[in-house]
Amino acid sequence: MARRRFSFIDRIGHRVLLGRWSQVARAAGHANLALLSRQRRRARELRHKLNELIYVADGRLALPRIGSNSFFRPEGTDWAWRPQLWRGPLEPRGMASVQSKQGFGNEVTVFHDCRISELTLRQLRNTKEEDLAPFGLRMDVFRFDGSFLSLVLDLPDEACQNLKKRHLIRLDTIIELEKPLEIFARLNIKHGPNTEQVVRELPLNQSDVMVEFDLAYTNLNEKRVERMWIDLIFEGPEMNQVTIRELTFSRSPRAEL
Length: 257
Description:
Blueprint: H1 2-27, H2 33-61, E1 79-81, E2 94-95, E3 102-104, E4 108-112, E5 119-125, E6 135-141, E7 149-154, E8 167-177, E9 182-191, E10 194-201, E11 209-214, E12 225-235, E13 240-253
Antiparallel strand pairs: 1-13, 2-5, 3-4, 4-7, 5-6, 6-13, 7-12, 8-11, 8-13, 9-10, 9-12
């Protein structure tokens, strides 16, 4: 009964409030300027709270669900991972004039050599029917006076556990571009004093992009693996918008011959 009474009172209050602001909006064209100034301030305060509510509600009610870790894993996969940026909300949700070595969340770091940064990053809520990742990353690059731009993603310690030269490391991603762009993925594996590097160009002519790093062609010391990270390298990114709607990694042993 209490819940029903509250719901009725809440609906009445909403109608009264909506009617009041509708009346204020209709009268704004000829209202006293001092009064209009106060109304504008109150309207902005109300809009701020409403925008907060709408953002949280959109995030919780939209699909895919926040925290989802559902994605394709090849047969025989012994480790798979979707980074936090594509799995859950970050705070802050965006950055402007991003400086080199500036982190976005706990796992992604930006590197560039621009004198003046005209680079922005923003986390987006994925809502397309084909999306599996709850969130995506949008990068806007305006004037770019540097020679390189990369996003560095630290892989978790679990990726290094029992890592062997017979392993394949797979990267799956969905990327949207405003105009054509070359993107390279470089896998780095630190083992002792040495670092192995394997570079692959992302085949962006496909809707679902996949590359594999075959560790058989490296000089990996399996007993001394310390950490792994991925560089996403953007060639000539000026005046472009890049949206990475999905990014996942998996590890599986190569089939025995």
